[in-house]
Structure formats: structure tokens, C-alpha cells
Amino acid sequence: MPTSNKASHAWIFGDNIDTDLLAPGAYMKASLSELASHCLEAVNKDFAQQVKKGDFVVAGEAFGIGSSREQAAQALVELGVSAIIAKSFARIFYRNALNLGLPVLVCAEVDKISKADQLIVDPIAGVITNVTTQETYQCDPIHPELMAIVNAGGLMPFLKAKFARQS
Amino acid sequence: MPELMSPQTLAQKIIAKASGKSHVSPGEIVTCKLDLVLMHDSSGPRRVKSRLEELGAKVFDPNKVVLVSDHFVPATDPESAEILALTRRWAQENLITNFYDMQGICHVMLPQQGHLKPGMFIVGGDSHSPTGGAFGTFMVGIGATEMTGALATGEIWIKVPETIRININGQLQKGCSAKDIMLHLCAKLGMNNNYKVMEFAGDTVADMPMYERMVLCNMSAELGGKTGIVEADQTTIDWINNTGETAAIDALDWVSDSDARYEKVIHLDASQLIPQVAAPHSPENTHPVTSFENITIHQAYIGACTGAKLSDLKMAAAVLKGQKVAKGTRLLIAPASTKTTELAAKDGTLAILTEAGAIILPTGCGACAGMGAGAIANGENCISSTSRNFKGRMGSPESNVYLASPYTVAACAITGEITDPRQFLEGELNANIK
Q1: Per-residue pLDDT tens for A109-154?
Q2: Assigned CATH for B278-424
Q3: Which chain A positions have a beta carbon within 8 Å of B44's beta carbon?
Q4: What is the reported pLDDT for A4?
Q5: In angstroms, rounded to a whole number, what is the distance separating the alpha carbons of residues B21 and B37?
Q6: Pairing with B224, which of A159, B134, B139, B196 sits 20 to 30 Å away (CA)?
Q7: Residues lower than pLDDT 70 in chain B
Q8: 3-class secondary structure, B199
Q9: What pLDDT does A51 receive?
């Protein structure tokens, strides 16, 4: 899981950001880049067009609720989002994101983050630094058992290493 | 060791067996062996094929995989046709004998074909995988990378969940169904019951046919739960025996210990419930049908794993018998499996629906997932027997989806607006549609 010291822009969303908003069904058979260009358009028309590599998505409760479609997390990876910070995550989305190497951080203090705040996120330590407001926020730690997958950069690199050891 | 003696919920018992332990506790992370894996055409071969090749891995046991094409069926353009062709090739190359091609929706095909047995630990590449919990299994949804790992290793890690027991007692009123219970629970419990197992119990559940228990577990997904589960009983055994399969001798042992510890226990008096409707754009935005006035309905949709089984078609028929769909409203029905259509044709249900003016669509996930026929336009209102009404799910981001039972959806089709179905059920004894 990448750690960056460079501050990036926060995009703010509310509660219950569902997988149909993230990966609309009408584009599910399209290419990942086309699907990603419609990511969250029903709630923020500018997001997919203007989000920059390294930016953060900040949201409320139950982020990623709904379908098991992995493209919901993959679209955010495709757009360059470097981490999602939310009060809580839907469980399949949470696993999908970590499996793809996209850091997902549970943080009770997300309401203190405002639109366009510049953040530095350390997903391993679970610490968010808000450069704009000079605050720091603590995130819930990722379960130690999951850190093996996280540290490998996702489930595929983790499995590759596992299969390499077996052969 | 007192820990080993402590009572367990049904979910804990299944996880303990699958992880080779005598006992598991909530919060513990364990690795479980998979008894069965379910995949469909959208999240299945097209997403896992290249990854398995990248790993140089083979399917751990082709006989433990059930593959269903239900999302992009029937093909509507060259892209969906290619996805289906890839699915078929992959099934053949990987010797997947349990491949159901365009025969029904995966969550309905599994029990219809007798694949579900109490005590099984199952993963499915779809968020409505909890449906299988109605048969006393522990079944959870996973994404495609996770599926790659499951297929390659035959195992998955899981955090042992807490269980919430939902005791439902009392006889459902006329025009009410498991769907109304679940919509009501979405409003009452919210959609953020993450990582929890919803265990449904009580007299109302014991009296429910399997189709209705499936709705309870199916919509555990909308509660945000890890899965839903119902203890096995004679109704479960009878279902399995009717499929031509045989339930194991220990099938009835798959129940929670009477003194098992639950995170909480919720009580619901089903006899007090009236038909429920979820307003846009969330299942938790549910209110009694009587609180909706002058909401025009352009499309009434009966479909998907949640709401197009034989029982659902019968509920719609009970309302639509001798009635006509309103001018300006279209009633679309996509039966959950070809077998459903066959049985509905045999028993006269289908004729009641078509005589009322219903348009029968191909079997598949279809418009529920915004994928097949039946998409809705900007500004249109659809009432649907499906499980999700997220913004834009069934078509235009500026369309509105209301959720209700098949009874209520059918009543709305007759009047062209949101309508209490009970007025169309005079004299009907419909509480227990089997």
C-alpha cells in the first residue's frame, strides 16, 4: 500500500455512497476507463472529470453499500484516488478495496474535513494530517491479519507470492 | 476451558466446522474451507479468468463451483454477447458441470437445483448471496479479486461476525409478505449493520415457505449485514427432498444453541404490519403504503432474485385477477427462472398476469441492475419488487424507484399510482402463498 508525503485534495461525499453511484449498471460492460468517467456522476458531475491522481475521497457512513461489483473500487483506483476515508464501509466494498491495494480508512473525525482541504494520509499508521487546518486525525487500525495483504499491495501480489512459495 | 463450552449461534457453528475448529468467537479471524462457490457472468469468468492465468492457478474443485449466466442475458448487443461467449468457454475449459446458462437468476438457481444444504459454508460473487442463508447455510458475497483467491485456494479468511437475532411472531395480514417485513426492518435498523449476521426466527418465519425465507435473507444485504440465516427445519428438508437431492442426516442439527449469545435480539410483531413502500433513493426510506398519495407510476416491475419467484408471481396474480393494467402504466414481469415460468404457466398464474396486460420479459437480473430490458427515463417513477432503489440504478439518474412487495406493485399497475393492495384482495386467503 503506497504512502505519500505529498498533500492532496479531499473530495467530500455524504452517507450511503452506493455501488450504483460508483459504478453505474449501464456502463458495467464498458471499458474500465469509460465506467470510471461516470463514477459518482449522479451526485457530483465534476468529480470524475476533475479528480487528480493522489486525491482522497472522504465520506460518511456505509461507503460502498450495495453490489459486490469490484469495479466500484476499481473505478476510484482508475481515477487515481489514493485512499478513501469514511466513518464506515460496506463489508464487500471494504474487502474489494484492500484486495485491489486501495487504502480504506475508518475515521470518526471525517466531519472535520472540508471540501478541497489538503491532506496527507499514512494508511499504515492510520494517521491523517489536514495541512489546511493543521489538525491530525486517528483512524481505526487495519486488522493485523489483513496487513499481510495490504503490505503486499493487494490480494493478487499476495497470492502470487503464496503460489511462488508453494511451487 | 470455559470458552470451548460456551454456546454458539448457527453462524458460529458453520464457521467453526469450515475452519476445522470446535468453537469460534466473534472478532476472531479464521480461514474457512469452501463447500460451494457461486459465480455469475458479470463478476465471474470475465473478471477472474485472466487473474487465475496470471497466478498459474486452477479451480480448486470444479464440482464445487456453480456458474450461472443471469446478468447480461439475453445478449442485447455485441459486448454482452461476448461476455456470455467467454462465460461459456470458461465453463467448458474448466470442466464446470454445474453451469446454468440463461436458466434463471443465480440465487434462485442454487436452491431450485438442490445445491444448498444446511451447514454449508459458501461464497458467491454477488451481494445478494445471503439469500442462500434461508437454507441454514452460511453464505456471503465477495468481489472478483477475492473470488480469484477463493477459486485458486478453496479457502477464504473471515472475521467471525456477531449475530443479531430477529424474532418475528404473529400472522402477517392480508397483502403483507416477507418483503414488507424487510422494508420495515430497513427503516427500523438502517443499512449500516455491517459485519453482522441477521438470524431470522419466530413463528412467522417458521410458517413461511422457503421462497419467503429467501426474501428475508436476500434483503439482509440491504441492512448492510454480512449475511442472513434461518435455522434448518422440516420445511427446509422438504424443499431439498423435492429437488431430488437428499438432506444430510444431521440437517436439523444446524440451529443456534438455545442459550447462544446475540449482540442484540429484536422483536417484530408481524400482525401489526401493513404493506410498506420504500421511497427514492434508499430502502431505509420506507413508510407504510397509506402515507403515499398521488404518486404516479409509469412502470411497475416484478423481477430479480428478491421479487420474481413463483411465490411472487402468485402474489401479483392474486391482486391482478380480473383486473387490467392502467393506461399510461406498463407492468413488466421478468420471472426469476425458466422453471418459474414453466410452473406459472402450468398452474394458471401466467395467464392471469398476461390477461391483465403484463408484459413478460426474459428471465434474468435485467432492469433491477440497470442492465437488461426495462430501463426507466428521466423523470419517470417505477415501483419495483426488487431490493434496491439507489439513485440511477434502474436507468436515468433522474428517475425514481420505489420498492414494494409484488402485491403492492401489482396494485399500483392497476391504478397507475401508489396504491394499497389490500383493496384488491377481498376474500383472498393469501397470507401463506407457497
Answers
A1: 999 999 999 999 998 889 999 999 999 999 998 887 787 887 888 9
A2: 3.30.499.10
A3: none
A4: 55
A5: 21
A6: A159
A7: 1-5, 427-434
A8: strand
A9: 97
Put simply, the answer to whether B142 touches A95 (Cβ < 8 Å) is yes
Of the candidates B9, B31, B29, the one whose C-alpha atom is nearest the C-alpha of residue B19 is B31
The reported pLDDT for the residue numbered B433 is 54
Give the model confidence (pLDDT) of A3-20 as tens digits.
456 789 999 999 999 999
Q: Do the domain assignments include residue A1?
A: no
Report the percentage of chain A scoring pLDDT > 90.
80
**Residue A95 lies inside a defined structural domain of this protein:** yes
Query: Could you check whether B12-268 and B278-424 share the same CATH topology?
Result: yes
CATH number for the domain including A128? Answer: 3.20.19.10
> How far is B303 from B71, CA to CA, in rounded Å?
12
Please tell me which of the candidates B152, B153, B191 has its beta carbon nearest to residue A65. Answer: B191
What residue ranges do the domains of chain B occupy?
Answer: 12-268, 278-424
> Which residues of chain A have a CB within 8 Å of the CB of B399?
none
pLDDT at A146: 83
B386 near B301, Cβ under 8 Å?
A: yes
CA dist., res. B377 & res. B365, Å (int): 19
Would you say residue A2 lies in a domain?
no
Q: What integer pLDDT is reported at residue B200 of this predicted model?
A: 98
Question: What does the pLDDT read at residue B431?
Answer: 43
Contact A155/B at CB under 8 A: yes
CB contact under 8 A, B370 and A91: no
Whether residue A24 and residue B127 make contact (CB cut-off 8 A), yes or no, is no
Cα gap B267→B188, rounded to integer Å: 11
Q: Do B56 and A163 touch (CB under 8 A)?
A: yes
Q: What is the mean pLDDT of residues A85-97?
A: 96
- Sheet arrangement for strand B65-69: B98-101, B65-69, B36-40, B121-124, B138-141
Pick the CATH number of B12-268 from 3.40.50.11540, 3.30.499.10, 2.40.30.170, 1.20.120.530: 3.30.499.10
CA distance B266 to B166: 5
Buried b (16+ CB within 10 A) or exposed e, B362-392: ebbbbbbbbbbebbbeeebbbbbbbbbbbbb
Q: Do B42 and A69 touch (CB under 8 A)?
A: yes
A105 in a domain, yes or no?
A: yes
Q: Choose among B55, B143, B157: nearest Cβ to A70.
A: B143
Query: Å from A116 to nearest chain B CA?
Result: 25
What is the predicted ipTM?
0.92
Residue of B nearest to A156 (CA): B145
Q: What's residue A2's pLDDT? A: 47
Could you give the CA distance from residue B178 to residue B171 in angstroms, rounded to a whole number? 11
- Compute the C-alpha angle A130/A132/A133, nearest 5°: 70
Specify which residues B220 forms β-bridges with.
none
Q: Are B288 and B411 a contacting pair, CB within 8 Å? A: no
The Cα B123–Cα B138 span in angstroms is 8
* Interface touch A42/B152, C-beta < 8 Å: no
For chain B, percent of residues with pLDDT exceeding 90: 94
Number of domains chain A contains: 1
| pLDDT tens digits for range B415-428 | 999 999 999 997 65
* The pLDDT of residue B5: 65
Q: Considering CB atoms only, which of B55, B126, B397 is closest to A68?
A: B126
